[in-house]
Amino acid sequence: MIRKIDSILSKNFFAKKYFHTSLLLLIILVACFLRFYNTPNRYGFDPDAIRDAIITTYGASTFQVPLTGPFSSLGPFTFGPWYYYQLILFRILVPLAYAPWIYMSFISLVVIFVFYKIGELLENKTFGLILAGLAAISPAQIAPATGLSNPNLIAVQAVFALWIFIIIVKKTPSNWWAFFLGVSIGIGINNHYQLSTFLLLPVLLLFTGKTKRFAYFLISLIGVLSTFIPIILFDLTHNHLEIIGIIHTMRNGRPNYVPNRWLLYLRDFWPNFWSHTLGIPIVLGAIILLFSVGANIFLIFKKKISKAYLLLLLTFVAIFIILRFYPGERAVYYLLFLHPFIFIFTGAFFYLFINSKLLYLKYAGIIAFIIFLIFIFFTNLSDTHSFESHTTAVSQAKQISAKYPRSKFILYSCKGITDYQVQAIMFILQTMGKLDSNGVKVGIFSSSCPVAIKSKYSSWEKVETTNLLSMSDSTLRKNGWTAITLVSVYDAYAKWYTK
Asked: In terms of DSSP bridges, do strands 465-467 and 481-484 run parallel, antiparallel, or are they unpaired?
């Protein structure tokens, strides 16, 4: 009976022509829901996010772009400016207040389609659907898609780089593909230096056996170097601030040592990281990890893997060893460049399961994969709550607007203590059209505010405002108050080198 049903399905016109396309569209629709549901309330207004949103808003409105990216937490050096370039360009094309966050979600949807193409290139459309399904519902992909921080784009660049790499290995495309491979890797490294390990990909092009392998290698390196032109020009024209900061960090800013035996690395880190990326409990994650390793060993033993897949495995093994000897902390939420490997290797296990020659096992594999996706979907659905930082900023902006309903405002922070909270309120007021450099002077209080301002002090959660119009700018500055504007934030973070 089951064989008869299977035969009917295989002959069905819809299944043959539209089945994969329909499933891919369904996967993308589910991904859209998980990324855009309850937004903008899910957009966190942490210091990095609100800083980048303001830089994007001001840069797009004045057609200015920073020469550098955000500062690294490791030391006095910055990343490249490509992260801001992407956000500012999208903000110009999509003139919406929340455009920076929308871009992160939009590019995350594009990545799902790229995963589908990777699976199709490595095996077939079924494998592509498995990879797309895993990427669509992974909480490790959804969280960066609703956040705003330069590392959040690392998984995006990693996926694009792997896709182009596979195209070069599987086919013999024009030299432009090698250049785009380098550009994708270079932009990723500019966004965050954790993607530096992907410089292995141009090297591996030398082992493809293609007649153009040396050309591909050299051209991809040119592509990588081309993305560093902005930061190199900045360094050459600003007293080598970047290279001096990197050297200083290498000499004095070594990461704190974390105990890192092979046992801890294999037993603790990887099961945690695998389960975190897939969005499942650690016990199930450890089981899936073991099955994924077993599936890939089976593929190697049976010689059922392509050269492209083998090169991906070699890349991962090299990164696996490099990461073992990294002396700092390996946070599971941080190493986004490894996500594509986890999806591909986990997908290989499910693909073998689903394509078993035993018909009953095949249907069991399909059912297990569907249950797996549904479980992760509802896990994500329960985690789509609003961020307090956003709802608080909106509430306080409305409070200020209600207090002076016909006025526009200029906000002040007290001694810098409340800067990023004031920036959040300012961003919301800007979306309401309530900012003006000559507007009502409104101070945001904290426990450190000077006694000269006669009002009740309060915490950030219950912030109070007051009309400071009676005080001159000199008096405000004398008492520790600083105006927070789009220009001041942009200058402080994007033009720090002029200070």
From this structure: unpaired
Interacting residues of 337 by C-beta distance below 8 A, sequence separation 6+ = 154, 155, 158, 188, 194, 195, 197, 198
Strands 409-414 and 440-444: parallel
Cα separation of 155 and 137, whole Å? 15
pLDDT digits (tens, 9 = 90+) for 173-220: 899 999 999 999 999 999 999 899 999 999 999 988 777 889 999 999
Burial 170-197 (b: 16+ CB within 10 A, else e): eeeeeeebbbbbbbbbbbbbbbbbbbeb
189 and 229 in contact (C-beta within 8 Å)? no
* Structural element, H or E, at residue 411: strand 409-414
d(CA 403, CA 405): 6
At 2, give phi and psi (nearest 5°): -65, -40
Predicted local distance difference test score (pLDDT) of residue 418: 62
**pLDDT single digits (tens) 390-412:** 888 888 888 888 888 888 988 88
Q: Quick one: 220 exposed, middle or buried, by C-beta within 10 A (0-12, 13-18, 19+)?
A: buried
Compute CA distances 143 → 82, 140, 147, 261, 295, whole Å. Answer: 21, 6, 6, 30, 29
**pTM tops 0.85:** yes
pLDDT tens digit sequence for 460-474: 334 455 566 567 778
Segment 60-89 shows an average pLDDT of 91
Position 5, amino acid: I
Q: How many CA atoms lie within 13 A of 247 on its CB side?
A: 5
Helix residue spans in 355-480 (DSSP H): 359-381, 388-403, 419-431, 473-478
Secondary structure tally for the chain: helices H, strands E: 24, 4
Q: Are 35 and 116 in contact (CB under 8 A)?
A: no
- Distance separating alpha carbons of residues 162 and 337, to the nearest angstrom: 11
Are the CB atoms for 155 and 339 separated by under 8 Å? Answer: yes
Report d(CA 439, CA 444) in Å as an integer: 15
Other Cβ atoms closer than 10 A to 101? 26
Q: In whole angstroms, what is the distance from residue 210 CA to residue 251 CA?
A: 42
